[in-house]
Write a structure and sequence with these properties.
10% strand; 379 residues; six-stranded mixed β-sheet; 10 strands; single chain; two-stranded antiparallel ribbon; alpha/beta
Length: 379
């Protein structure tokens, strides 16, 4: 029997992938500064930094460098509870650096005035700026995405659209607009970094890095974040998918079932049967659930008043909105916000606020579409 060695064996032989892609010596290393916000998303961060490490490994050169930063230079806890040690605080960077803000839970709370000022300062100095996952919110809040195309995680798109009207919001997995970079989070960071690697050093290196990641379906900035509608609902019926697509694109001004049926060349009764057969609910109820989901996102992620949330989701009557919301989520919009809705409390409904609106506050949006719709939801 062979006894184990008292000292561990060392391996001087390089990893099989090291130096497999030959590159000309770069003029300088490209450096990334990852600004980690409190409770940032680990997946989006890891999916961005690992392609850089692998690019160095397979090229046999240190073509990329990176540093981790936090607001105070102290360790940062991500959303899964893991604590990361950082290299720097909000120090000066160079115009050749790329700053990527890594966001996660409660990004508005994690984005302080000090962070916003630092982002603006470094952008003025010429650094490329970007956001991973909800980090795009911080970059937009600093005013650095005004007039630019950008993306953010699909769950935050509704609130982002309401908060930053000057940003051209896209639903793609990542967006590169000049020296502004944004990715939707999760594995979308891999696609963004592979695109940058390909731009810097060629498709061959990027493809080799993707192979190392066992990532065999590289997405482009034209690919959508979410699964297709047929895949999401588990039904491959073209007319049903077309109707749902129209619903999702028309939240603020809902389209009546008869109009939706007409658009796809069927009767309202046929549309009803189609939804009952495949989704076990009426078109009205399905549409209402989409609208209420958007309303919940806006309530949880923005400072919009309950009245404005109702309007943004196609409800002309705040009372009708509250009734539908309570029937679906078993709580009121005000309680969802952490307020009781009592007179005088923040977020409570004040009838005088409705005086300048050009509709009857007790009228439903469309009698054919919304009439007694709350009754169609489970009690």
């Amino acid at each position: 029997m062979r006894l184990p060695s008292a000292t561990p064996r060392t391996h001087s032989r390089p990893a099989p992938s090291q130096g497999t892609v030959r590159l000309n010596a770069p003029e300088r290393k490209r450096r990334f500064i990852f600004l980690l916000l409190d409770r940032f998303t680990m997946m989006a961060f890891a999916s961005a930094i690992e392609p850089l490490r692998l690019a160095n490994q397979v090229s046999g050169q240190k073509i990329y460098d990176w540093k981790l930063a936090s607001e105070d230079g102290q360790d940062v806890t991500c959303s899964n509870g893991t604590v990361l040690r950082v290299d720097m605080g909000l120090d000066e960077v160079t115009r050749d650096d790329t700053v990527l803000v890594c966001g996660g839970i409660d990004v508005a709370e994690a984005t302080t005035k000090q962070i916003l000022n630092w982002l603006r300062r470094e952008a003025r100095r010429g650094a490329t700026m970007g956001g991973l996952c909800t980090g795009a919110w911080a970059v937009a809040k600093a005013g650095l995405l005004d007039g630019k195309r950008a993306t953010i995680h699909w769950e935050n798109q509704d609130s982002f659209f309401e908060d930053f009207e000057g940003v051209k919001l896209a639903k793609s997995v990542f967006v590169i607009d000049g020296n502004r970079l944004t990715s939707a989070g999760g594995t979308a960071s891999i696609d963004l970094m592979l695109k940058l690697i390909a731009r810097d050093h060629g498709e061959g290196l990027a493809n080799t890095v993707a192979d190392q990641l066992i990532y065999n379906s590289i997405r482009t900035d034209q690919d959508s974040q979410r699964l297709s509608i047929p895949t999401r609902i588990g039904v491959r019926h073209p007319k049903l998918a077309q109707v749902i697509g129209r619903m999702e694109a028309n939240i603020e001004e809902p389209i009546s079932p008869s109009k939706l049926a007409e658009e796809v060349g069927m009767s309202t009764r046929q549309l009803e049967r189609l939804f009952r057969r495949y989704l076990n609910r009426s078109p009205k109820r399905y549409y209402m659930e989409i609208r209420l989901q958007k309303a919940r996102n806006l309530l949880m992620q923005t400072e919009m008043s309950v009245i404005n949330v109702a309007l943004a989701c196609g409800f002309a009557s705040p009372s009708h909105f509250s009734k539908c919301y309570r029937a679906h989520y078993r709580t009121t919009p005000y309680r969802e916000r952490g307020t009781s809705g009592a007179p005088g409390e923040p977020g409570s409904f004040d009838p005088t606020l409705m005086a300048d609106l050009d509709f009857d506050p007790e009228a439903d949006f469309d009698p054919e579409f919304d009439d007694d719709l709350a009754d169609d939801l489970p009690e």
